[in-house]
Write a structure and sequence with these properties.
mainly beta, Beta-galactosidase, Chain A, domain 5, 8-stranded antiparallel β-sheet, 2 helices, 21 strands, 4% helix, globular, binds 6-O-phosphono-beta-D-glucopyranose
Length: 299
Amino acid sequence: PQVTFSDDNSSVRAVLPTGESVTVLLHGATITSWTDASGSEKLWLSSSAHLDGSKPVRGGIPLVFPVFGTAPDHAQTASLAQHGFARSSRWEFLGKSTSESASGDGAADLSAKLDFGLSAAGLSEEAKGKWSFAFNLIYSVTLNRGSLTTSLVVTNDDEKAWDCQVLLHTYLRVKDINEVEVHGLDGAQYVDKVDGAKTKSQSGAVKITGETDRVYTPVANGPVTVAEGGKKTFTVTRDNLSNVVVWNPWTDKAAGMGDFSPKDGFKNMLCIEPGSVSGWQSLEPGDAYEGAQTITYHS
Ligand code: BG6
């Protein structure tokens, strides 16, 4: 048994011999699908998402770089579009690889890795006009049985220093948002973007009962878990990403987004977004920064 890879002009897909799969759109290096062995989808993707490169993708895992939201007071990124240009640029597919690890029953488990790249030469004229620094991004997507790892390496190829923010904007698929609890954020400070950007402190599990948009700084680098109806469904671990954004648009915000469908789809998604966004990563010429997430599902 082997991993099956396929690619066309717009996306790359890997399927493990056991059936797990991942699909990555070259537009934004956006992961648009991640399934388990039975074909059940783990990510939420809007049915009216633009997959043709005309807009960032609503759903899956878009990449945020070099600015989270907008930063009007930060000169280098002040004129960039919301969440930067990585999610709206066409990335290059750099290559694929397979590796083996021993599984419990003695047979080898295969994993598949897909690598994508973006540098200044790949930007639109519009993005080049707003961000003139030389940079290189390598995004690696690794599909294992039961988990997905996505890792971004940012390199400063310029002669000047520059700052950036990075975030992995994961839209997890859930059965019923009313049954969801997010664990692992107890005691964390967060900026509440739906309450005047006030800083607050989390006590206990996070429940989603209305529009939620929070930038957490967890006290430790432990896992964040999602439970549904008291049963753990996802574990998200972070490497070198000190923030976790928790976002759900709820009714009104979903209604206002032209690319959010179905309109009650907010009941079936929750964004858990590992990132480095509460400050800036300052990169001197030649410096690199790497951040990663691993999402494991429990069935
Ligand atoms: C989240 C932000 O990461 O992304 C929210 O915290 C924002 O404020 C959301 O609304 C979606 O952003 P966009 O640009 O994809 O609509």
